[in-house]
Amino acid sequence: MIVYGLQPPNLPQNRDFGGGNLGLCTDQVPGVIRPLTCYNEGNMGALAQFKKNALIADMVDTRAKILDAAITVPPPLRTEVFLGSWSLLDLLAHLAGWDDANRQAVEAVRAGQLPAFYEYAERDWHSFNTKLVAEYRLDDFDALVERVRSTQHRLVELLDAVPVEDFDRDYQVRFRKYKVTLSRLLRAEVKDEKEHLAQIRQITNLTR
Asked: Residue 123's pLDDT is what?
């Protein structure tokens, strides 16, 4: 075991093996753990890209599972109320609405502005969700499914074009002292959709 601050044996004497050592970052020294200072901007950029890709992949995968589960719900049940005052059609409609709302939110946050939907901030965003359902619902199930696919596709296209460093950038956007970032907005959306996936699957389980 090599202790930092002590000169390791059999190594060049002109090299500093303290905390910020560049030699340990560029050379493979057996028994020495690379300090955190060795991880340069390139490494951190790769990590940020990985996190961005993973977040978008989770969004796409969750939405695909929602639509797959929705399709298995028998047609007569798709218009039946099962979640508060919502039917399956209402739930799907609000997902499409949030896709477009989040597209606008991405642009707003990057401009240093609070997304417009925060004016509806309240318990469960009830009034905003009601507005989205009224605007995005279609009675034709297949057409609604296609709408829900296409709205997310447009959101993902926008996110793909956003520089990776912008996802966690602090644009000084706050809501009641809460720091609003792109990644936080999107993670909240994924969390919400996974809850809805479980709710839809409960319907399908009841029909088996």
From this structure: 72
